[in-house]
Each structure stands twice: as structure tokens, then as C-alpha cells.
Amino acid sequence: MQRINAEKSALFVELGAEIGSKAVLEAMERVPRELFVPAEVRPLAYQNIPLSIGSGQTISQPYMVARMTELLELKGDEKVLEVGTGSGYQAAILSLLLPRGGVVSVERDETLAATAGVRLEELGYGNVTVETAGPTLGCPDHAPFDAIIVTAACPGLPDTLVGQLAVGGRMVAPVGPRDEQSLILARRTEEGLTVEVQGRCRFVPLLGPEGFGEG
Ligand code: SAH
Asked: How would DSSP label each residue in 119-176?
């Protein structure tokens, strides 16, 4: 326990040097990452690395979670879509940043969706709804969203998600081939879409429509 506390302090010193948003760092300090990972990797919870969460999936590196979250520039009252609930960790952080808003998080793997839904409820993240992914990418039933975060690699910027983004909204997504992607920040304006590359990243693939093949 003492060792994990020391590692947690060290991690937040490291993140503080790279991440400008105090609100994002504070939210991340309040979310116990060790409760979102399987017992066998719990001792590694505060290393700045991605970890395996079962079903062949990973919880992102803390730095990447922080960076993607800060790019959303949340004010606190937005309705946010996450594609790829995984463990629910990213959704928990968004939850704390949205005291007057909420999160809809969609997950394709039914087991992960069910586990994350129960975990988030038990830990008291009441403004998060976890949905099992349907035939259409994202969550058309709850659209439009003020912000969208995609936590699985997309071969291209998914048009369906752009269509679910409100005018004035921001979307962050890893876009590119399976082995490495660009972290994309897209903004939907009255005139159309602006797109910026915010660095490189590596995510597990988005599967299904507008994703990679099943194989
Ligand atoms: N954000 C998560 C990590 C996501 S890993 C966390 O904080 O733990 C990527 C997740 O995307 C995986 O769980 C995978 O099952 C899911 N996924 C892949 N394709 C998807 C799709 N089309 N719709 C929803 N989820 C998808």
C-alpha cells in the first residue's frame, strides 16, 4: 500500500510536467486506477503504462488518458460520448469533470460492458451510462453529443461519429493503421470540420462498422 502511494505521487509529478489542465489532474487523482484493473496487475496500477484488462483489451496509459481528456476542454455541463468503455476508467474521470453533465459510454464486448457498468455504479459514478454497442457505431439514440472520445484505433475519422457530434463540439480519436495512429482533435463548426494532429499513439483496434475487420 505504501509502495503504491509512493508510485501514485511519482506518477502525478510526472503527469504534472506534461499536462496543463489542473482539473484533469485532480479528477485523475480522485479515481482509484487500481480498482479498474485485474488483481494480478494491480501492483502496476500507478506505472505510466497501459495494462491488460482481459478480453484482449487494455486500459490506456495514464498520460494518454490525461492528454485526451484535456483536449476535450470540458466545462462541466456537457453530454459526452465515449466509444470503448473497456474497464470504465476513462469514463470515471469524465464523470468527475461533468458535475452538471453526463457520459454515455459504449462498449462492444458484452462482458466488459457489464463489468464496467456494475463497477461504475458501485463506485458512485452516477452520471455514466454504459451501453452495449448496437449495429451503428457510437450511440445514435443519445446524439448529439457536445464531445466525443474514441479509445480504440480507427482506420479513418468515422463519419458516423462526426454526425453524432453537436455543432461547436470536439472529438478526440486515434486515427491510422493498426500498429500506430495519429491522435486527432476534430472540431465541428457551422462551416464543417477542422482537424488537427496532436501527436502519435497506439490503441487496440475499433471493430465493426468503420473499424478494422474482425480478424
Ligand atoms: N477507455 C477504456 C479502454 C478502452 S480499450 C478504459 O478506460 O479502460 C478499447 C475498447 O474499445 C475495448 O474494450 C474494445 O472492446 C472496445 N471497442 C472496440 N470496437 C468497438 C466499437 N465498435 N464500439 C464500442 N467499443 C468498441
From this structure: HHHHTT-TTEEEEE--SSSS-GGG--EEEEEE-SBBSS--HHHHHTEEEEEEEEEEES
- Kindly state the helix (H) or strand (E) to which residue 47 belongs, with its residue range: none
Crossing angle of helices 22-30/62-71, nearest 10°?
Answer: 130
Cell 510526472 belongs to: 14
| Greatest CA separation for the chain | 53
60 part of the active site: yes
For residue 83, report the distance from its CA to the centre of ligand 1, in Å. 6
Residue closest via CA to ligand 1's atom 10 equals 84
Q: Is-contact 103 31, C-beta < 8 A?
A: no
Atom 4 in ligand 1: residue holding the nearest Cα: 86
**Would you say 172 and 68 are in contact if contact means Cβ atoms under 8 Å apart?**
yes
CB 61 within 8 A of CB 193: no
Q: What is the pLDDT of residues 153-201, one digit of tens each?
A: 999 999 999 999 999 999 999 999 999 999 999 999 999 999 999 999 9
Q: Does the model's pTM come out above 0.85?
A: yes
Does 151 sit in the ligand 1 pocket, CB within 6 Å? yes
